[in-house]
């Protein structure tokens, strides 16, 4: 009798687990409905402080993320899903201070990037939004924000912003 009851409970739990997993997509595609194409326009850098390669890199990396993690086809015009916007802030601020011999200096600086994004979905207009996404990276004040330090900071920042955009638009997280 105990074995029979154990088998019934195990079967029910297995069915519940399989049903729950069937609704979730491990690819992160979420519910894109009938969308087949995606249009990601160039994001110009309109920040007061301009990093020359940021616009191109931001746009290209966002396109790469969506083509890797969805089955949507990237198009130049008339996409079922459309992203447009601009980089609105790129700033460096001192974060923590150290005092030595009466002088206060920054021990760490923070690079922050803010991007304004307009998203539209031809098939589900209720999903449309305009939002700002931002993230930051801290680096030592003794380091110059160039070369590998800049690359590492931008890698961290853009990866996070892109994932946040993906989650807000198609993954619905």
Helices, strands, pairings?
Blueprint: H1 2-23, E1 37-40, H2 54-69, E2 73-74, E3 81-100, E4 103-121, E5 129-140, H3 147-171
Parallel strand pairs: 1-2, 1-3
Antiparallel strand pairs: 3-4, 4-5
Helix pairs in contact: 2-3
Please explain how this structure is put together.
- This protein is of the alpha/beta class and 173 residues long.
- Helix content is 36%, strand content 33%.
- It is flat, with a radius of gyration of 22 Å.
Relevant terms:
about 170 residues, about 35% helix, five-stranded mixed beta sheet, alpha/beta, single chain
Quick description:
The chain is of the alpha/beta class.
Which segments are poorly predicted (pLDDT under 50) over 5 or more consecutive residues?
A: 21-29
Indicate the proportion of strand residues. 25-35%
What is the average of the pLDDT values? Answer: 85
The largest sheet is:
5 strands, mixed
Instruction: Sum up the overall morphology in one term.
Output: flat
Which structural class do you get from the secondary structure elements? alpha/beta
- How do the helices and strands follow one another from N- to C-terminus? HEHEEEEH
Helix percentage: 25-40%
Number of helices: 3
Number of strands: 5
Q: Rg, please?
A: 22 Å
The strands making up the biggest β-sheet line up spatially as: 2-1-3-4-5
Oligomer: single chain
Q: How far apart are the first and last residues' alpha carbons, in Å?
A: 44 Å
